[in-house]
Amino acid sequence: VSQQPQPSSGTDRDEGTQILVVENDPLVLNMLAVLLGSRWTVRIAEGGDAALALARRSTPDLIISDVHMPDVDGITLVRRLRDDPSTQNVPVILVSSQSGERETIAGLEAGADDFLVKPFSARELQVRIQTRLEITAMRRRNARQEAALESLRRHTAWTERLLDSLPVPLLLLEPGQARVLFANAASVALYGHPLPRGLAFDEVASFRAPDAEAGATISGPELAPASADRKIHGRRLLWMTAGGPRWLLADSELIPQYDHYSAVAVLTLRDITELVRHEDDLRLTVRLRDEFLSVASHELRTPISTLTLQTETLLRDGETKPVDERLQKKLLTIRNQISRLSQLVDVLLDVSRLIEGRLNLRTEEVDLASIAAEAIDMLRESAERAGCPIHLNSQQAVPGWWDRLRVGQVVTNLLSNAIKFGPGQPVDVDVETTGDRARLRVRDRGIGVPNEARERIFARFERASAHQGIPGLGLGLWITKQIVDAYGGSIGVDSQVGKGSTFTVELPRMP
Amino acid sequence: MNRQMKHEMNGQMTRHPYILVVEDDPDLRQNLTDILRAEGYVTGAAANGREALAILQTSERPSLIVLDLAMPDMNGWQFRDKQRADLRLIDIPVLVVTANRNLGPNVPGNEVLVKPFGLDEVLEKVKRLSRAQADDRS
User: Fold this and answer.
1) Chain A contact present for B115, CB below 8 A
2) pTM for this one?
C-alpha cells in the first residue's frame, strides 16, 4: 500500500460523506484513515463488532473492511450488515491481503459490493470508493423518483376514486385540447358510452347549444378552457347521449400545473333535464293561464254590457213610472254589483295586458294634483261608506308627462287599499313636486304591512293579509307598480303593523 | 213604439235616423236595438259583417252603424275594409263597440264604445254621431 496520498486524488473534499474503515491492524488503519480522510469524513473501527455497533448508531455512506479480523471477520460483518434493515443498503468494499477466488466469491456472495486485493494503490482505492459512492447515489435517486412516481400514482388513483363517488358527472380534460384525462363514473353513466382516456372529447361526445342560441355545436376546446378567462359558468347545453338528448348545466374550471401534476380543465355537467321539463311545463301553464285571463276578461265584457244596459233601462223606467220600491232597491244593488264585476274584469284585462307588455301609454302633459283630486272624488262615496275621510294636501299643480288614466289608476289603487285596510280611519294624500320628480304619498291608519311582506305585496297575486278576510285578487299593487315602472318611477311602503302604512310613489316628470 | 210613431206623425221633415246595429251577441244586439228604438230611432240589426253588407245592399242608407269588432264570419275590421271600398257606404259614420280599451289611434271608426258601457254613454254617442251625419247632409 502506498503511504502517500496521491495529490491528484484529493479533488473536492466531501465531508458530508461518511466512510467507515474497519481494520484490526493499527498501522493499516491509520494509513487508510489519513488517505481517505483527505477527501471524506472517516470513522474507524478496529473489529467487526465495533463496526456493526457504529454502523447501527449512524449509517455510513460506505464501509471499507478488512476480511481477516480476529473477532468478527469481514465476510461475517457483511452478512450481518445485510441482515439488518438499517444497514442492508450500505455499500461495502472488502479488502484482503491474499488473493483467492474462493474468498472473493464468498465475500461477494455475502453481499459485498466490491473486493480489493492488497497491494493496491491509493489511487485505485479512491477510484473504487468514488465509483461505489456514485453508483449508490444514483440508485438512491432512482429509488426516490420511483417512490415519488408511485406516490403520484396512488394519489391519482385515490383522487379518481373520490371523483367516481360523486353523483355529478365530471371530466378532467387536457386544457385547450379537450383530450379526456379522466371521466368519472357518473359522466360515463350519463353518456351511456365509455369515455376512454386520451381520446379527443369532440370525437366521442357531441354538445349543442340550446335552440335559443341557434343550436350550434359546441366544440370540446370551448368546454376545456386553456386560460382562466375562458372558463364557463352555468352554461346550458344539450348533450347527445346514448339515452337521447339531455339538458346540462356546464361549469368549467382550469387548474394550473402544480408539482408533478399537469394542468387540467375540470368540466362538470349537471343533468337538469327533469328541471328543464318542469320549467317548460310551468311556462306553458303560466302562458295558458295568462291567455285564459285575456280571453275571459274580453268575453266577460259583452254579457256585462247587456246586464248594464238592461239594469239601467229598468232603473230609468222607474224614474217615469210608478214602481215597486223593493224592486227598485234590488235593481240598484244589481247595478252596483255589475259595476264591481266590471272593475274586476278591468283588473284581469290589465294583468293580461301587462304580462304581454302592452300597456299602450298615452302620455300627455297632465297635473298629478288634479288627477288625485278626481280619483278622490270618484271614491268619495265608498270612502264615506267605510268611514274614511280623505284629505288631499297639494299646494299647487304638479305637472308632468304621463297617461292620465294610468296615473289615475295608481292613485285609485292606493286609495282603495287605504280604505280597504284602514276602515273608519282618515286617509291623507300628499302630492308635491320634488325637483324633476313628482311625489305622491297615501297614508292610512290601517292594519299595516309586516316587514317580510314589504317587497312581496308588489308581486302578482300576492297579498299581505290573505288570512284577514279582506277580499281582493292581489293584483292592485302589482298593476300599480307596473305603471310606475313603465314611467321609470319608484314605489315603496313604510309601515308599522297595527298603526298604518304610507305608500310613496315617485315619478319622473319628463319622459 | 208610441213615441216613434208620435215623432213620425209630427212632421215629414224630420225623418228619424236609421241606425244599423252589427253585433254577434244576440242579447246585446236586442238590447241595443230596444234602447235605440225607445229613443225614437229606427233600427236594423245584423249578426256579423257579412249580414250587415247584405242589409246595406237593400235597405235605406243608415245615419250610423254601431259596429262590434270581434264577430265570427266577417269581423268589424273586415267589414270596415269593405265599407271603405264602397263609395256609396264610405261616409256612413261608425260607432265601434269593443272590449279592447287600448285601441288608441287604431280605432276603425269615428268613435268607440268600450265594453262594458252604460246607457247614457250609448245614447250620447249615438245621438252625436247620427246628428253630425244629418247636419252634414243639410
Assistant:
1) yes
2) 0.51
CA distances from B12 to A278, B9, B61, B133 (A): 73, 7, 17, 18
Three-class SS of residue A23? coil
Task: Record the cell numbers describing residue A4, joined without a space.
Answer: 502517500
| Distance (Å) from the alpha carbon of A174 to chain B's nearest alpha carbon | 59
Task: Give residues 77 to 96 of B whose Cβ lies within 8 Å of A.
Answer: none
Amino acid at A168: V
* Candidates A301, A306, A358; nearest CB to B27: A306
Rounding to the nearest 10 degrees, give the CA dihedral for residues B131, B132, B133, B138. 90
Distance from CA of A327 to the nearest CA of B (A): 19
**Residue burial A219-243, b: 16+ Cβ < 10 Å; e: rest:** ebbbbbbeeeebebeebebbbebee
Pairwise CA distance, residues B15 & A418, whole Å: 54
- All three cell numbers of A93, joined, read 468494499
Q: What percent of chain A has pLDDT over 90?
A: 44
Q: What CA–CA distance (Å, rounded) separates A249 from A272?
A: 7
Considering only CA atoms, which of A303, A327, A301 is closest in space to residue A315?
A327
Record: contact B117-A302, CB cut-off 8 A: no
As a whole number of angstroms, the distance between CA A292 and CA A290 comes to 5
Angle of helix B119-137 versus helix A273-320 axis, rounded to 10: 70
A338: which chain B residues are within 8 Å (Cβ-Cβ)? Answer: 116
Minimal C-alpha gap between B137 and chain A (Å): 31
Residue of A nearest to B103 (CA): A360
Q: What is the DSSP string of A333-376?
A: HHHHHHHHHHHHHHHHHHHHHHHTT-----EEEEEHHHHHHHHH
Task: State the pLDDT at residue A468.
Answer: 56
Residues of chain A with pLDDT under 50: 1-10, 467
Helix or strand holding residue A110 (H, E): helix A101-110
Helix axes A325-355, A476-486, angle to 10 degrees: 50
